[in-house]
């Protein structure tokens, strides 16, 4: 919440805003007596009564053009977020009439009015947005005195909590109201590489510097044994780790290499190196389990990162670690640490992907052969014994060679989100995704996101058209239905995507997801939002699949399966898409009927409603 300095503002209104980074405000001379102009960084103050403190506020916030209203009196001050960081400018003009206020609103003709709402004191506010600047304006009377109240802040506002980004609604970029391509009736070929904001996960700010999702990124796998939990005492072998990760490895499913080469249609060929010896940290496992550090001022468990950096420091003199930076960005593409600890409920004894934040005294990551560690995967060797029963419960008893957890966690290394609801309230994908509960292929959105599929087909018919779909697991063939489409957003907008599912290839674990082959329909809402760090604008995906009761949840899911009937997800011959409602509250303008399901493809008729 804003920490309002003025008693008038405390009484008048309290607005809930996200904290922001760099606020930008430049007031342009618009022939009003009360204006501020900045040109080429030099302040020009057309109102002679501006104090030095007010001028300092103006000079601090550069970038937008804000008209100021003629008034009898005024005050200007910064307002503050909960972390006492200055976030924006509050300007309040006193003594204006209703007519003057409405004429003043007209001065924002080059802004977009995005919202009109009432606060808890029944004051009406207008929210105007232009580029990355938001202006909130209200007119009210307090004890008979009229006030025109403005808050000027950046729409690049975000909170970073628990590693997740929470954006204000003004930062979200959607395709709502964009319409469909004109002058075409039938199939519109979509080139996802034409997206202007983000083309794939490697361009998303949240994963900047992460492991490349295409090509041959270098992966360093380090077997880790502790003095109080040795590999020999547990019968663990590096050969089994190699079988789990390397090309052609012998196990109960696909190796990590084979899985990602198959699922990516050959677009990702991981260059994996598994060390031939176990690395042994300097201390017993209990030391690392209890080790704490600081991440963005928050006390955080850091034992796994101590092990990571100990291992790299040990290897620094024994091998050239710079060869694990395939994209030459100064970061090792990916590090995997497979440890000898028993699986437990806490993070240190579980499996996860994270970013290295262990720094030296200068606040920098430690360098090894000129590169630093960023993405890493931490998991217990015991996950090789993982078995899932019919009720979805896991056990970890020998024997076994299960690679599912390693494949799932490496999906995070590449940039995929968890698709299950971490609050366990909803079940958007029913568990049927490798990034949800069960092994199998990645869904079409993930493959768009990774850059494995760069094109699709969008139906824009005014009548009806027959289309075919080939086996998705083999070909990556997809069809998109949408009310609105923005070519500049590519895969990062709201749409429905259809695929032909079969229990073949990487879908064979446990007999496959479903009892029959057919069409699956995914509802995707991958809206982007703008963020800023060190003055640089970048873009991330706003939505996720966690219920909004969580601090990281969103109202609209990132991806969910559409049911055909009775909770069934597979559309087969004769099945018709039921009425579905977009997250904007509108009925999808198209439906389809499955005409036939054959061994290599399905045909379906898409018709406009």
Describe the structure.
There is one protein chain. The chain is of the alpha+beta class. The chain has 3 domains: 7-155, no CATH class; 172-202 and 452-608, no CATH class; 215-414, no CATH class. The protein has 11 helices and 33 strands.
How would you summarize what this structure contains?
This protein has 609 residues and is an alpha+beta fold.
Which helices and strands appear, and what pairs or packs with what?
Layout: H1 7-12, E1 36-39, E2 42-45, H2 52-60, E3 73-80, E4 86-94, H3 98-106, E5 112-118, E6 124-130, E7 133-142, E8 145-154, E9 158-161, E10 164-167, E11 172-173, E12 187-191, E13 218-224, H4 231-234, H5 238-245, H6 256-263, E14 271-274, H7 285-290, E15 292-295, E16 298-301, H8 303-316, E17 331-332, E18 334-339, E19 352-355, E20 372-373, E21 375-380, E22 387-388, E23 394-395, H9 404-414, H10 444-450, E24 455-459, E25 464-470, H11 472-475, E26 479-481, E27 494-501, E28 518-525, E29 528-533, E30 536-541, E31 559-561, E32 590-597, E33 601-608
Parallel strand pairs: 13-14, 13-18, 17-20, 18-21, 24-26
Antiparallel strand pairs: 1-2, 3-4, 4-8, 5-6, 6-7, 7-8, 9-10, 11-29, 12-24, 15-16, 19-21, 22-23, 25-33, 26-27, 27-28, 28-31, 29-30, 32-33
